[in-house]
Design goal:
Layout (H helix, E strand, L loop, with lengths): L27 H14 L3 E7 L1 H4 L4 H17 L4 E5 L19 H13 L2 H7 L29 E6 L10 E4 L6 E3 L8 E5 L25 E4 L6 H5 L3 E10 L13 E5 L5 H7 L15 E3 L12 H11 L1 H8 L2
Helix pairs in contact: 3-4, 3-8
Family: Belongs to the class IV-like SAM-binding methyltransferase superfamily.
InterPro entries: Alpha/beta_knot_MTases (IPR029028), NA-bd_OB-fold (IPR012340), Put_MeTrfase-C9orf114-like (IPR003750), tRNA_m1G_MTases_N (IPR029026)
Length: 333
């Protein structure tokens, strides 16, 4: 399929947009367009931070996988834009269910499972080689996220992976987007790279003039990154302008009375077995400080709990429901 010029463009076609999260983009001009576009968009995002240590306390690999699946489902249900996995345990136990021969930590395991689940099913074989950590992922329920489109579904964007076969026309790359045939991107990319393709409005693949590499879409619910310490350095590192910590020792405020200021990047942090307090104590930059000092708000989202402890995966579901109305009010400001 040859590239159409502007004179050939028909009604309903869209101008190409470029957005990539890879620093090694093949076109420097596209990087400039990306920066300019991002300045205009400024779409507010909500992230959650989860400690990798919750995996280290699970007795079997299957249960560890199911735990990661619960977190992925919660993040998808509440439309979380990003999951931050922070490693608050440097040395895994010798009896860990993880593959210690590869020095795999609970954080790296959790990251891998979340990344796998966030990826549409038709891309997983190409992007994820066989690994022991993925042995039980087939038992997990699908996320059914908005960007997990089926073969018969057409959407404005589809996730894809560049394939080895290059289109006959120079300057084009074939991309597998989970349809009956590959589509063409009018740019050169290395094979095996994940991209998000702008599909346009015409359902006929042969008539779509442009495809774009757009990785940072709001429909991509989970973008995984790891952080080697506690949450302390996250604001300067990722640009979060409002951070909320959750703990049974936090302040009790009714959801209807909670006021969250207008934000660009909101982060909600959850602790592990010993809570966020342990993570703060282990941070050399916060020696002698209280956990409340690391957050803009430090809240107890489930007062009067009936169980002595609330598991992290339970706290995530409870808290994200608690924050729904306050976040909605903040976004309307």
């Amino acid at each position: 399929m040859a590239k159409k010029n502007k004179k050939q463009a028909t009604e309903g076609e869209v101008e190409p947009e470029l957005n990539t999260n890879n620093d090694d983009s093949d076109d420097s001009h596209n990087k400039k367009k990306l920066k300019k576009k991002n300045k205009k968009m400024k779409i507010p995002t909500v992230s959650i931070a989860v400690p990798g240590s919750i995996i280290d306390n699970v007795p079997t690999l299957e249960l560890a996988t199911r735990l990661a699946g619960q977190i992925a489902r919660a993040a998808t249900i509440f439309r979380i834009n990003e999951v931050v996995v922070f490693d608050n345990k440097s040395n895994p136990d010798n009896d860990s269910v993880l593959d210690n021969s590869n020095d795999e930590s609970g954080a790296s395991f959790l990251m891998q499972i979340l990344q796998y689940l966030e990826t549409p099913q038709y891309l997983r074989k190409a992007l994820f080689p066989m690994h022991n950590s993925l042995r039980f992922v087939g038992l997990l329920p699908p996320l059914d996220a908005p960007h997990h489109l089926r073969k018969h579904e057409w959407g404005p964007y589809r996730e894809g992976v560049t394939v080895k076969e290059r289109h006959l026309n120079s300057g084009a790359t074939l991309v597998d987007v989970g349809l009956v045939k590959n589509v063409i991107v009018d740019q050169i990319f290395k094979p095996g790279r994940r991209v998000t393709v702008a599909m346009g409005t015409d359902r006929n693949l042969d008539s779509v003039p442009y495809f774009s590499d757009c990785a940072n879409l709001t429909v991509v619910l989970i973008v995984i990154m790891s952080y080697p310490s506690s949450c302390n350095a996250l604001p300067s590192h990722r640009g979060y302008d409002f951070i909320i910590g959750t703990s049974e020792h936090g302040q009790i405020i009714k959801s209807s009375d909670l006021e969250i200021p207008s934000f660009r990047h909101l982060l909600i942090a959850f602790g592990g077995l010993a809570g966020l307090e342990e993570s703060i104590e282990e941070d050399d930059n916060l020696k002698g400080k209280k956990a409340q000092d690391a957050f803009n708000l430090y809240l107890n989202t489930c007062p009067h709990q009936g169980s002595r402890t609330i598991r992290t995966e339970e706290a995530i579901l409870i808290s994200l429901q608690y924050f729904q109305e306050p976040i909605s009010r903040a976004l309307q400001c």
